[in-house]
Design brief:
The chain has 205 residues and is of the alpha/beta class. It is 40% helix and 18% strand. It has one domain: TIM Barrel (Alpha-Beta Barrel), CATH 3.20.20. The chain contains ten helices and eight strands. The relative contact order is 0.16.
Length: 205
């Protein structure tokens, strides 16, 4: 039986993957979250070899934390990842399940129709956003509370992403959100231990 899905997810991009202080940052985030943290190896411009190296690095640095790979199922298999996060253009969750029966399989969605389709296709969880204004998706308006509640009302765990900070978690939890994911708020935090600890604390309230 799988352990419950972590509530806190630290996602990388190409700039995070290239950081010289990545090892100390990753271990600090894991410590702050008391290892109840999932590290996502992500970077659309990274080669498969680079993404594999990143995932294996996380597994070595933070052996008590889970490692997910975004989009690249071949890399997830090779890296022995704990899960995958799929995009609209990826394989369907059911097809991914045939490759990794024990994976946590999530889907990144922005519209309710996408979320319903992902649920019907066998997704275990949804990554929904942006929930606040986000530098990652400046062209997308934030989701309002009523729309967010429609996502959470589908019954799958919802991981909210986009401009999330510790202070913004309470209203997300009130809307039924299960957990949160972040890039800048975690990897660029002046004190990554405190950032992960504060987010984890808010998620447990």
């Amino acid at each position: 039986m799988r352990a419950p899905l972590d509530r806190l997810h630290a996602i990388t991009d190409e700039s995070v993957a290239a950081r010289a202080d990545l090892p100390t940052r990753a271990t600090a985030l894991a410590a702050g979250a008391a290892n109840r943290l999932t590290l996502h190896a992500r970077g659309p411009a990274l080669s498969g070899r680079e993404l594999y190296a990143l995932a294996r690095r996380f597994a070595s640095l933070c052996p008590q934390s889970r490692v997910f790979v975004n989009d690249r199922l071949d890399v997830a298999l090779a890296a022995r990842a704990h899960g995958v996060q799929l995009r609209r253009t990826s394989l369907a969750p059911g097809e991914a399940r045939s490759l990794g029966p024990d994976w946590w399989i999530g889907c990144s969605v922005h519209e309710l129709d996408e979320a319903r389709a992902a649920q019907a296709a066998g997704a275990d969880y949804l990554v929904v956003g942006p929930v606040f204004t986000s530098a990652t998706h400046p062209d997308r308006p934030p989701l309002d509370t009523r729309t967010l509640e429609q996502f959470t009302g589908l019954g799958l765990p919802v991981i909210a992403i986009g401009g999330v900070t510790p202070e913004r978690i309470a209203p997300l939890r009130a809307a039924g959100v299960y957990g949160v994911a972040a890039i800048r708020a975690l990897w660029d935090a002046p004190d990554p231990v405190a950032a992960a600890r504060d987010m984890a604390k808010e998620l447990e309230r």
